[in-house]
Every structure is written in C-alpha cells, then in structure tokens.
Amino acid sequence: MFDIGFWELLLIFSIALIVLGPERLPKAARTVGHWTGRARAFVRNLTTELERETRKSEAARSFAEAKRVMQQSVTDLDKQADDDGSTSTSSQEKASKQAASGE
Description:
The protein is mostly helical. The protein has a domain at 35-72. 92% of the residues lie in helices and 0% in strands. The chain is built from two helices and no strands. It has helices at 6-84, 86-101. The longest helix is centred in the middle third of the chain and has 79 residues, at 6-84. It starts with 5 loop residues before the first helix and ends with a helix.
C-alpha cells in the first residue's frame, strides 16, 4: 500500500523522538501500533465480506442460469411429447402391459 523504506522510517522515528521525547515515545508507538492493527483487521474483514458477497452473487447467477436451462429443457420435452402424442402413449401402455404380464 505505502512504500515506506528504511530511511523514511528512521526520519519519522527521529522526528517523533524530538517532538515527543523519550518518555512519551513508547506509549505513542503502542497507540499507533494498536490503531494500525485495528485498521488492518477492519480492512481484512471488509475484504472477506466483499469476497463472500461476490461468491454468493456468482452462485446465485449460476443457479438462475441452470434453472432457466432446465425449465427450457422441460418445455422442449413437453412440446416434443405433445407432438408425438399418441405414439409415445401407446408405447408406454405396451411397456406397462408387458411389465405387468412378466414378459
């Protein structure tokens, strides 16, 4: 995120030492560390939530597409069965009778 090198950190530490003094510098460093940790945790949590919502959205979209394809297939099969009508019914009846008679 930030590109802070060794010399920049040394400069910041030197200025903080001069401004705060050796007594208050450790407490200030702890406070900065605490708030930095909380900020990182917040960003990590936000990133995780966004990824979870993205996966959920993609899964819902995929599910809707699969449902649409299945409904279209069922509609096509129903149309095909209606077109064949009597042939498929008679074939089903013959198969049922053969199964019932044990042939």
